[in-house]
Design a protein that fits this description.
The protein is α+β, with helices and mostly antiparallel strands. It folds into two domains: 138 residues, Probable inorganic polyphosphate/atp-NAD kinase, domain 1 (Rossmann fold); 134 residues, Probable inorganic polyphosphate/atp-NAD kinase, domain 2 (Tumour Suppressor Smad4), CATH 2.60.200.30. The protein has six helices and 19 strands. The strands form four sheets. Strands 8-7-18-15-10-11 form a six-stranded antiparallel beta sheet, with no helix packed on it. A six-stranded antiparallel beta sheet has the order 14-13-12-9-16-17, with no helix packed on it. Strands 2-1-3-4-5 form a five-stranded parallel beta sheet, with helices on both faces. The longest helix has 12 residues. The chain is globular, with a radius of gyration of 20 Å.
């Protein structure tokens, strides 16, 4: 067994139901180095000869978590690891895979390197959204990518106001607004015209979704500066979501206070990890036509 990682958790995305041979292949490789626990996300039926534990049980008992899927699978594992100080590595079976950066074709050699201590370490921060009715705190949720206020009905825009540090930034009408971390800057925020933010920066981006005012532009703020979003009094009902999950209905009497979360996520990468190479590869930069 590896002295570094005595137990490894494998989190498998839900559409891997039909690829049980691939799952077993990864489990067999991991089992050469450590005890293995598996969590299958929302599988319709148990896998043959593969026992699945709850995600909470898994993150409480392992020294390393590996996600097998795309960035969505990694985000689910990441949120479960908040406050655990357990590192996370992503094997990419998705599409773009900005976070899950180890190719499935190369995973075996990379796992061998990681369990023998050859990897790079990167810290990414979460954001926390506190959901209020007036001054009453109703709930809190965290996100690694983004917290989004968006229209409840796709045919209607919403009116909302955004403030920070007690100062009004703007009042807008649009399909919604994204508050994104640097990690989330290559996700929904990027498709909305937001900037790509290097993950080492301590910033948050506010990106409107299809704003009615054509002069509206994304704005980048310090990550330690709280951001508050609330609906206008005459606005349609909206929803708020955290990394696309934990969606809540928002009315004019609600507000969402977004702050940097206190504990970071530890991501592991291959030793030769290069953020700009990831951008070039995933976004087809520097391609010869």
């Amino acid at each position: 067994m590896s002295a570094k990682f005595k137990s490894i958790g494998l989190v498998v995305r839900n559409d891997m139901q039909s690829r049980q041979d691939s799952i077993r292949q990864v489990i067999d490789v991991l089992a050469r180095h450590a005890d293995v626990l598996v969590h299958c996300l929302d599988f319709e039926q148990p896998l043959v000869e593969i026992s699945s534990v709850s995600l909470e049980h898994l993150v409480d008992r392992v020294d390393l978590v590996i996600s097998l899927g795309g960035d969505g699978t990694l985000l689910t594992a990441a949120r479960a690891l908040a406050n655990k100080n357990t590192p996370l590595l992503g094997i990419n079976l998705g599409r773009l895979g900005f976070l899950a950066d180890v190719s499935f074709d190369d995973y075996e050699s990379y796992i061998d390197e990681v369990v023998n201590g050859r990897y790079s370490v990167e810290k990414r921060f979460f954001i926390e959204g506190s959901f209020y009715r007036g001054d009453e705190l109703l709930s809190t949720n965290i996100a690694l990518n983004d917290i989004i206020l968006h229209s409840h009905e796709s045919a209607n825009m919403i009116e909302y106001e955004v403030s920070s540090g007690g100062h009004l930034i703007h009042i807008q009408r649009s399909d919604g607004v994204i508050v994104s971390t640097p990690t989330g800057s290559t996700a929904y925020a990027m498709s909305g015209g937001g900037p790509i933010i290097h993950p080492s920066l301590e910033t948050l981006a506010i990106v409107p979704i299809c704003p009615h005012t054509l002069s509206n532009r994304p704005i980048v703020l310090p990550a330690d500066q709280p951001i508050e979003v609330r609906l206008g009094q005459d606005s349609h009902i909206a929803k708020v979501s955290y990394d696309g999950h934990s969606t809540k209905t928002v009315g004019p009497d609600n507000r969402v206070l977004i702050t940097r979360y206190s504990e970071p996520l530890t991501l592991l990468h291959p030793e030769d990890y290069d953020y700009f190479q990831v951008l070039r590869s995933k976004l087809f930069w520097s391609t010869n036509y």
